Amino acid sequence: MSFLPQHEVPQRTKESSSSLNETNSSQSSSKSMLETSSNWGSSRSDHFPTLNFGSLIGCCLRRKQKDSEMISSLPETFSVNSSSSQLHGSLQRNTQHESSVIIFTLSEIMKATSNFSPSFKIGQGGFGTVYKGQLKDGTIVAVKRAKKNPHDSQLSTEFRNEVTTLSNIEHLNLVKLIGYVEERSERIMVVEYVANGNLREHLDGHYGIVLDLAMRLDIAIDIAHALTYLHLYADKSIIHRDIKSSNILLTENFRAKVADFGFSRLGPSDFDASHVSTQVKGTAGYLDPEYLKTSKLTQKSDVYSYGVLLIEIFTGRRPIEQKRDSKERITTSWALQMFANGKAFEVLDPRIERTSSASLLIEKVLELAFQCASPQRHERPTMKKTTEFLWKVRKDFQNSRQRRNSESRELCKLFSEKA
Ligand SMILES: Nc1ncnc2c1ncn2[C@@H]1O[C@H](COP(=O)(O)OP(=O)(O)OP(=O)(O)O)[C@@H](O)[C@H]1O
Ligand SMILES: [Mg+2]
């Protein structure tokens, strides 16, 4: 089953494919930017985009050997510096073995949401309906009420176990699960309320604010922190399974919080049209092709979705843009073609200011995103490596902006002295 249309390999890539293979075999520096065991030239999936990401990227990486050197020189492990303490500093793992989950009664939650009043409704998704609510102690929460599953008259043990696992997770960039309702066949989750809407709404400009490049990069890093934590540092490694822009919620300070980790296991089996209705769950456009093919889910499935999301964050486009011309319909493929043709800057969201720092940043971010969204699982970096790479990108971006600012200050000074 394929959600993505088949693509043709761009002409330019076909022409250069033999030299790409040479590159792959002989140049370890351009082979991989994040030390994945790359086999770009030969990687092709029968089921998933036939667009050869490997060849295209190989071609581009050859052009950008300098960048690759920078990338491959990244540390293998976290070092104790400001960036890593940023990750570790925000890790607040609940070391208690007892779960801190609260079991609410249905009537408590009905009170909190004024009987699930439509005026308290803040969203609707595959899991069910989301309400804003206020608990007895005044805490504002989001209440997620799952659609009723006719085949499941009792709350399953699996559901309860999952909720308990998830409630033990605490991280600055993850929406905290506060509790659940254990009554009749209701599946209700009570989670931390995040006040500033979801990332997709912001990319769509619903709030009249254009997220600038620095904000987008910070958001991307926040999400990477959250996923690294889920994969590596939670008591039990957790795969999110449904990374997408509507599951990224923003605080008033534009910090990102990832919602719904593990939720796709908790929801009803009959997900709506935006979800895949086979045993494979997730959202079209973000789904790991290898997961689709094999039904085997790994942490690299989240990495794939993250790659797609990275492209979405910086282009502003949805992963699938139904209304566009066929060449532009699959945003990842379109961005990859543009990148291969040396037009990386053109994929940047048109609302973002064009500067030399922006140009550098988008090239590096796209390179990373394509590697994350490689059709071949083994070619994708881990979330930890992805995070480390983004720290470096942010540092370079900040330095480049500072340089630009001091240069323009110097120029202003010169002009005012001459005047
Ligand atoms: N914790 C929360 N705080 C504030 N708003 C939330 C919260 N959780 C969800 N929402 C809002 O409700 C909307 C619907 O959420 P929901 O998770 O049900 O659907 P979705 O993310 O669009 O799809 P999916 O069900 O696949 O996750 C979100 O897009 C968001 O705007
Ligand atoms: Mg959601």
From TrEMBL:
One of its GO terms (molecular function) is ATP binding. Residues 1-43 are annotated as: Disordered. It is an enzyme of class 2 (transferase). The keyword Plastid does not apply. SMART domains: S_TKc. Belongs to the protein kinase superfamily. This is non-specific serine/threonine protein kinase. It comes from Ceratopteris richardii (Triangle waterfern).
